Amino acid sequence: MPEATVTATNPTEAAPSTPTTEAAAATTLITSAVAAAETTTPATTTEVEPVATPTEPTEAKPAVVEGAPEKYEFKAPEGKAYDSNILTAFEASAREANLTQDAAQKLLDSMSPKIAERQTEQVKAINQEWLNASTSDKEFGGDALNENLGVAKKALDTFGSPELSKLLGSTGLGNHPEVIRAFYRIGKAISEDKFVTGAAPAGRSTTAAQVLYDKTA
Questions:
Q1: How far is CA 137 from CA 60, 105, 144, 212, in A?
Q2: Residues 145 and 208 grouped into a single domain
Q3: CA 177/CA 134 separation, integer angstroms
Q4: How many CB atoms lie within 10 A of CB 194?
Q5: Crossing angle of the two packed helices 101-135 and 84-96, in degrees rounded to 10
Q6: pLDDT for the residue numbered 83
Q7: Which domain does 204 fall in, by range?
Q8: Radius of gyration of the chain (CA)
Q9: Between 172 and 55, the higher pLDDT residue
Q10: What 3-state class would DSSP assign to 139?
């Protein structure tokens, strides 16, 4: 008789899986993964950015052009006046530098004390020139200056006014040789009498203007 073949079965050997078992296992894994994801991953909210509303374009304003104006309008400090020649020269320099009205005025204001000082010096220099010319004038100057000034003073007192005397004295015009000459000739013409000479007291020097217009001379 042929020998019978006996196949021993290993009890630890896994039984062949069936399709039903594999499907159940897959379902279990998917369920577990979903549950784990829901537990560990916080829910996120997606924010939707607002859509900007288009605006109408604004009209561009023209830029303000800074620079020299068509004509400068300068103002002198209260009670003062600028020499027209100085202003003309200053305006030319300001325009060349393309300074605005405000910038040019500020610069002029800062220079005002120096300008006033310069004008005073010029007036003094001019008055001194007039005085020197009167002192040495061939018609009424020289050694007979004080006597001839007395003649001119008599004419001024007769035909002039206190306001005129004040004007001639304050401006220095009283030292101008032509002003003195005019009153000297008038004085000689109106009378041949001997006038008060108007000579200065001993030890005191005076100008022509002081003799003619200063009542204290």
A1: 74, 45, 10, 16
A2: yes
A3: 5
A4: 9
A5: 150
A6: 84
A7: 136-213
A8: 57
A9: 172
A10: coil
Token pair recorded at residue 26: 């897959």
User: For the chain, how far is it from start to end, CA to CA, in angstroms?
Assistant: 183
Is there a domain that residue 197 lies in?
A: yes
Q: Which two tokens stand for residue 16?
A: 């062949």
Closest-CA residue to 154 (of 129, 189, 123): 189
Dig out the tokens for 77 from the structure.
């400090």
Question: Token pair of 213, please?
Answer: 């217009």
Least confident interval from 30-44, 83-97, 104-118, 148-162: 30-44
What does pTM read for this prediction?
A: 0.49
Cα 178 from Cα 133, distance rounded (Å): 10
Number of domains in the chain: 2
Predicted confidence (pLDDT) per residue in 13-51, tens digit: 445 555 555 555 545 555 554 455 455 445 555 555 665
Residue 33 corresponds to which tokens in the numbers above?
Answer: 């993964």
CA dist., res. 208 & res. 217, Å (int): 10
